[in-house]
């Protein structure tokens, strides 16, 4: 598990950028598109199911990072920010563990060809994306500042 302090020291780790509503919307749209792709590959490939499921969730969460103004190209670091958002009750409990588990499943199936089963609940994934979208619309400037200050202080 990556720490915020470690992530901030990495060249592709956590960087403060200007909050960006346009990129937030783009990543949410990409999450929705990825969900549609996931539906089309059901039963065809466990590698692509695991990869697509994870990226659907990841893009949704990354949209929040863009809204907040946190750029990060290391997935473990994005997940570390997710943990902070969960602790601050910005996102529901369980989102971080879900990302970690689905990232592990993706890596196992994609890189180690373990061919593990990929549990898919489309309604749950739609809810994940919609809930994240709702959170992004309700985030206040004060909350964004608090999150940015907390990440900066670690």
Helices and strands, with pairings:
Elements: H1 4-9, E1 15-16, H2 21-41, H3 46-68, E2 70-71, H4 75-87, H5 95-111, H6 122-138, H7 141-153
Antiparallel strand pairs: 1-2
Describe the protein in words.
- The protein is mostly helical and 154 residues long.
- The protein has one domain: Four Helix Bundle (Hemerythrin (Met), subunit A) (Up-down Bundle), CATH 1.20.120.330.
- It is 71% helix and 3% strand.
- A two-stranded antiparallel ribbon has the order 1-2.
- Helix 2 packs antiparallel against helix 6.
- The radius of gyration is 15 Å and the shape is globular.
- The model has no long low-confidence stretch (mean pLDDT 97).
Briefly say what this structure is.
By secondary structure, this protein is mostly helical. It has helices at 4-9, 21-41, 46-68, 75-87, 95-111, 122-138, 141-153, and strands at 15-16, 70-71. The chain has a single domain, classed as Four Helix Bundle (Hemerythrin (Met), subunit A) (Up-down Bundle).
Which short descriptors sum up this protein?
single chain, 154 residues, mainly alpha, Four Helix Bundle (Hemerythrin (Met), subunit A), two-stranded antiparallel ribbon, 7 helices, 2 strands, globular
Mean pLDDT: 97
Query: What is the strand tally?
Result: 2
- Low-confidence spans: pLDDT under 50, at least 5 residues? none
- What does the overall shape look like? globular
**H/E element string?**
HEHHEHHHH
Relevant CATH superfamily: Nucleotidyltransferases  domain 2
**Structurally, how many domains make up the residues?**
1
How large, in whole angstroms, is the Cα Rg? 15 Å
